[in-house]
Write a structure and sequence with these properties.
Pfam families: Peptidase_S9, Peptidase_S9_N. The chain is of the alpha+beta class and about 700 residues long. α3 packs across α15. The chain is globular.
Amino acid sequence: MKAQPPVSPVARFRRSDDPLWHWLEDREAPEVRAFLEAANAECAHWFAPLDALAESLYRGHLARRELAVTGLATPLDHFTYWSETAAEADYPRWWRHPNGEPAAKACFLDLEARAEAHDFLELGDMALSPDEAWLAWSEDTSGDERFALYLKRLPEGEPRLLLEEIGPELSWAEDDQTLLFTRYDATQRPDSIWRLRLDLAGPTPAIAEEALVLREEDPEFWLGLGKTRSRAWLVLESASKDTSECYLIPADAPATPPRCFRPRESGVEYALEHRPGTFYVLHNRRATHFCLDAVAEAQALGEASPAWLPLVAHRDDHTLEGVDAFAWGLVITERDHDRAQVRLRVLELAVEGGLGDDRLLPLGEVPSSLMLGDMPHFDSRRLRLREESFTRPVRWLEHDLESGERRLLKEQPIHGDLRPEQLACRRLWAEGHDGERIPVSVVARAELLDQGPLPTLLYGYGAYGEVLDPWFSVARLELLARGVAFAVAHVRGGGDRGEPWYLAGKLEHKENSFRDFLAARDALVAQGISDAQRIAAYGASAGGLLVGASLNLAPQAFCAAVLDVPFVDVLRTMENPDLPLTTAEYTEWGNPDEPDARRRIRDYSPLDNLEDRPYPALFLQGSWHDTRVPYWEPAKLYARLTEQALARGETPTGGPRPILLRSDLSAGHGGASGRFKAWRDNARQDAFILWALGLADT
């Protein structure tokens, strides 16, 4: 006999005095947890017929990848470091050996062993003392992004818990006994940087002194810390979404009071790099797409305002995204607006300060991802590069600046019946509602791409200026092997076409993001790639906002959608400054205390624009310990849509348009921390997508 579906949790827990389900925000109320557990049971019941498919997807994924993984070894001054993850392990072990003595290897951090006592484990940061005698690391064992600080003598010392409830970032000073870290305020904003002077002489490490280094009072600004590759300066940054300010401390004299490099100026962002004698300032002051200036070190530290000398001018068709300094010159990360493509530019600087060779590093294909790998040595003339694309797995290369030769260091192996060379990628250009050209990337099996229309999964993000550069996914091969096309909508609000692309999709321009996503969907249909009746959408976090708002505009455009930890209660969240992230997000979404901003947010916030009409099949996912997008946002969306469906006489989990909620009660914003659990979660999600696309039997 077929098991009867459980009574809808929405019908059981509905409160007539709270039609908007705000009571779900009370984390301490037992009925909240009971509601989420009931929704999980309902979700599991619905998925039961797909369990075999999810298991097949999971097993297929495992068969395609190399489960025993050895990371790329990186030599420092005294030792060479790498990670190893055993075939059956969720987490890596970290190893090292003295340079030139590979047989003398020793494990110095075993995350698999540390995870045994916890349902969740995330490594925040790992910092080696300059003499490589001590390891400090931060770890989160609940998913709420509150970290504990540990210290151990290498390689075999016992870990010592030094502090709890801190931020993830760590940085050693160059005196081998001072460690810097961040702390949170009540809204989990990193508002202060602290200095620990450590007593490392005795048998057990101890804190000799703890001192406040810098505090940021403005609730829109967050503090971060780092050290220049030259190892000369500690850099403390205070930044909002559109303004930044840097402070400097000599790395070999960490008790020195921090000195402000340039006071903040509203709307001006800058970042610093250093070579002996010179600071390099990447900034957008009178340069919307950023430019690069040089400042003499002596002038920068003097009392008078220093002269900033232009090095790389502002350009209308490129955005400068980053700068890395070496003894010989700079590597500049820049983005071509027209091609929506990242490039690495090598700028050699002569000893006397003049410009030397200036060239772009070659690309394997377009579109692709290209970035510097781990490069700790300041004088290295062999660059480590990390490349990947939608059709090519991750590989690490060594590029010799002298000869121009490239050497393959490591490549992710792929097994199984679908090889990377059997895939094809295409870049389309959709026409937006205002005539703008929207890049859309598509990957599918090569023999199918021109034989469409294909069932399609459309992925989107589009916020904070983050880019969706091409990435290879082993799990995605399970969908591609079954004839699905995977597409990415590079909408405004992201950084895919540089800084102008980001600015054109935030604040008063936010609606462009949603319109672009729908334009991408329509272009896939118009160009014969996608089957109009079989397109599913996926969005996570702010991508959940993107998909949720797009569904409100055109629910008929998609047969299904997956919203993972989705930011869908935008107005209510932005009206609560006591929540984590809220005040820091004013420059992204707007401050609802301002009437125009409140109206704009109200007009697109997914939960504030639900209509009583059928929505496509929905799989919503949340996490109990998520401090970025609280569990109650997807829960409220599930409850309100389900309540509407019940009122229309529909059975939300029994028809063609189910509304499902699954809450991970032991994870945070990033989902499960162990790789096998994360892969199982992904397989379940893909089973839903294949069901929605009519491919559950493949």
